[in-house]
Hints:
Elements: H1 5-18, H2 27-42, H3 47-55, H4 62-68, H5 74-81, H6 85-94, H7 109-124, H8 128-157, H9 164-178, H10 182-200, H11 205-210, E1 216-226, H12 229-235, H13 238-255, E2 261-266, E3 269-274, H14 277-293, E4 299-311, E5 314-316, H15 318-329, E6 335-338, H16 339-344, E7 350-359, E8 363-371
Parallel strand pairs: 4-6
Antiparallel strand pairs: 1-3, 1-4, 2-3, 4-5, 6-8, 7-8
Amino acid sequence: MLADPAAIREDAAMDFEAAGLLDGLDGEEREARRRLLERLAADGATLDELKDAVAEERLVLLPVERVLGGRYTARDIEEKTGVPAALQLRVRHLVGLPAAGPDDPVFSDEDVEAATSLKAFLDAGFSEQALGQMTVVLGEMMARLAATTAGNFAETFLKPGEREDEIAARFTTLTEQLTPTLTPVLVATFKSHLHEAVRRSVLSRAELEAGQIQFGQEVGVCFADLVGFTNLSVELEVEQLGSVITRLGELSADVAVDPVRLVKMIGDAAMFVSPEPPQLVDAALSLVEAAEQAELPAMRAGIAYGPAVIRSGDFYGKAVNLASRVTGVARPGSVLCTEEVRDASADEFDWSFAGKHRLKGVGSESLFRARRLGSGSEQADEKHSSSGRRGEGSKKPRADRRRRRGSR
Length: 408
């Protein structure tokens, strides 16, 4: 004989109350919490899960968490796809997700499809090391996208005065409706970027003969950051600080016009690369100008040119380290460049000598400040000297070097 539903609800309510899950709530707010707890319990949530969710103030998000959660174990997926459970757990670790065991039900239907795709890559000849590199990058990007989406989701759909059960129900419905619509957006964006990466790539005869890609290249590297951001983070409210960083990202994307590429945002800084120094200097000047027009804190930029290696979509090497050090000595509102960058861009900008600087881990470097043509080339400080201008006999490196692999 089935138990009386009303009795079940009463027992559940008493359990919730005894567990302290209704503490501090009265009237309709208390009843809304009770309805949400009953709904979650009926869906299989344990008392410990409910206690943790209440203690961590995420009870209204628990239904969404359960919608997005998994129901398969790594062993289940191994049976379905043939992909070893150990490899699946390693992939999960590489994308930055919490550790799980082979019998933990943390995988979803989409993970089954992902395992099938993983097997296709392996069968096509990709090594586990290569897939590992791709997976790490994917995890970094998806973590940022997920955090941004979650924040915007709450900001968009949270309404004042709503009860917990109403918020939970609406958030759950929206999650079920909107999450699948992201798939074509992600696929389309990936294909477009892959197309651009292929378009920028070259395969030299030497690489074809060796059957191996040379990842080294000569490239211009630029870092640009907000001056005094640490102090600013103390003075501004969190929401205002977020707006500043968001605006900086938008402006950085705006100035990254081919062949200049925005590699990444690093907190209050942007990193750009380009095989063409003049275009990179122009982008840096544009970003400094745009930040001023947008009434953001003053920006500064440092640019170097030299050898770099590309791995997992990022750049490493002397040019990267040098550009970072140059940025550190640049003054607010200025774009400071190494001699190689100045020589490759001498006729496109006004230049002033900014002195010889000893840069940590790099050595002594002559640096030059770039300005728009006709904007005046007065010295930035007493150390500046007209002797830093390029004379007739100065050697000017070719600014039209052939694009090398990795400039994408």
